[in-house]
Amino acid sequence: MTERTLVLIKPDGVARRLVGEILGRVERKGLSITALELKTADRELAGKHYAEHEGRPFYPGLLEFITSGPLVAAVLEGPRAIAAFRQIAGGTDPVEKAVPGTVRGDLALDGQQNLVHGSDSVESAEREIALWFPHLARS
Ligand code: CMP
């Protein structure tokens, strides 16, 4: 079934010039990029995006990091796009969870500056797409 997912290449990915490397992996996997934008998130957008993590010890640092510079927001589409991108990304912890062959397993070390975000469910994807690309929201 075709799905949509919201992906961020976080500020560390842009600063490290890994945008092409990461989007190349997405395209080689067979997912389509249907929206793509370079932007710097303000705290309001970042807070809404990560609302589920409010109160966690890493939340203030996460907002600081995600608003620290330009990031790339994208909508990807394809069969099982949500799981497919999470497979490409690898687990949240780039050392303990992400395996070699994944973006985080190959290219990241830090649990917070872990290069990418991908929606974790259809509901999250639709909520996140509406935040980052309001014109693509489905009501
Ligand atoms: P992401 O997949 O975008 O979802 C939440 C983000 O919070 C996660 O990637 C990391 O960037 C960050 N994060 C999750 N767990 C931790 C942690 N234990 N310490 C610091 N940052 C974290």
From TrEMBL:
<dbReference type="GO" id="GO:0004550">
    <property type="term" value="F:nucleoside diphosphate kinase activity"/>
</dbReference>
<feature type="active site" description="Pros-phosphohistidine intermediate">
    <location>
        <position position="117"/>
    </location>
</feature>
<feature type="domain" description="Nucleoside diphosphate kinase-like">
    <location>
        <begin position="2"/>
        <end position="138"/>
    </location>
</feature>
<dbReference type="InterPro" id="IPR001564">
    <property type="entry name" value="Nucleoside_diP_kinase"/>
</dbReference>
<feature type="binding site">
    <location>
        <position position="92"/>
    </location>
    <ligand>
        <name>ATP</name>
    </ligand>
</feature>
<comment type="function">
    <text>Major role in the synthesis of nucleoside triphosphates other than ATP. The ATP gamma phosphate is transferred to the NDP beta phosphate via a ping-pong mechanism, using a phosphorylated active-site intermediate.</text>
</comment>
<keyword id="KW-0479">Metal-binding</keyword>
<keyword id="KW-0597">Phosphoprotein</keyword>
<feature type="binding site">
    <location>
        <position position="104"/>
    </location>
    <ligand>
        <name>ATP</name>
    </ligand>
</feature>
<dbReference type="InterPro" id="IPR036850">
    <property type="entry name" value="NDK-like_dom_sf"/>
</dbReference>
<keyword id="KW-0808">Transferase</keyword>
<keyword id="KW-0546">Nucleotide metabolism</keyword>
<comment type="subunit">
    <text>Homotetramer.</text>
</comment>
<dbReference type="InterPro" id="IPR023005">
    <property type="entry name" value="Nucleoside_diP_kinase_AS"/>
</dbReference>
<comment type="similarity">
    <text>Belongs to the NDK family.</text>
</comment>
<feature type="binding site">
    <location>
        <position position="86"/>
    </location>
    <ligand>
        <name>ATP</name>
    </ligand>
</feature>
<keyword id="KW-0067">ATP-binding</keyword>
<feature type="binding site">
    <location>
        <position position="10"/>
    </location>
    <ligand>
        <name>ATP</name>
    </ligand>
</feature>
<dbReference type="InterPro" id="IPR034907">
    <property type="entry name" value="NDK-like_dom"/>
</dbReference>
<keyword id="KW-0963">Cytoplasm</keyword>
<feature type="binding site">
    <location>
        <position position="114"/>
    </location>
    <ligand>
        <name>ATP</name>
    </ligand>
</feature>
<feature type="binding site">
    <location>
        <position position="58"/>
    </location>
    <ligand>
        <name>ATP</name>
    </ligand>
</feature>
<keyword id="KW-0418">Kinase</keyword>
<keyword id="KW-0460">Magnesium</keyword>
<dbReference type="Pfam" id="PF00334">
    <property type="entry name" value="NDK"/>
</dbReference>
<protein>
    <recommendedName>
        <fullName>Nucleoside diphosphate kinase</fullName>
        <ecNumber>2.7.4.6</ecNumber>
    </recommendedName>
</protein>
<keyword id="KW-0547">Nucleotide-binding</keyword>
